[in-house]
Structures are given as C-alpha cells and as structure tokens.
Amino acid sequence: MSLWNVDDKATSELIPEFVKNLYTYIPAKALRKAVVQLKKQYPKQPYKWACFVFFGISR
C-alpha cells in the first residue's frame, strides 16, 4: 500500500519490478528490492519511492 498519493510514473516503474521480484522473493523482500531500485533512479525525490510499504503476513 502507499502512505500518500503516488507519482504515476514512479508507480509504473515500481510495480513491474515488484511483480518480477515476486517470482524469487517473499512479498516484503520483493517490494524492498523494487523500492531500492526506484530509489537509485530518484535519489533526491523520496516522495516517489518512500510511500510504499508492505502490510500483511509474508511467507
């Protein structure tokens, strides 16, 4: 989920990376890796990547 309104372009870059990571990692780690990748692209714009959090049980 996101903690605030999200930049559409950043989300369209994050979600495919997240889904790709789900083939290998548990959801929390898959999201973390996708956010880290997005952070590399926008290091001075945390509003584009810092809003995403995983909520739930991760197995």
Task: Briefly say what this structure is.
The protein is mostly helical. The chain contains two helices and no strands.
Descriptive labels:
single chain, 59 residues, mainly alpha, globular
What would your notes on this structure say?
The protein has 59 residues and is mainly α. It has a domain at 8-46. The two termini are 18 Å apart. Helix 1 (8-22) packs across helix 2 (27-41). It contains two helices and no strands. The model has no long low-confidence stretch (mean pLDDT 91). Helices cover 51% and strands 0% of the residues. The longest helix has 15 residues, at 8-22.
Per DSSP E runs of 2 or more residues, the count of β-strands stands at 0
SSE string:
HH
Question: How much of the residues is beta strand, in percent?
Answer: under 5%
Q: Helicity, in percent?
A: 40-55%
Secondary structure elements and pairings:
Elements: H1 8-22, H2 27-41
Helix pairs in contact: 1-2
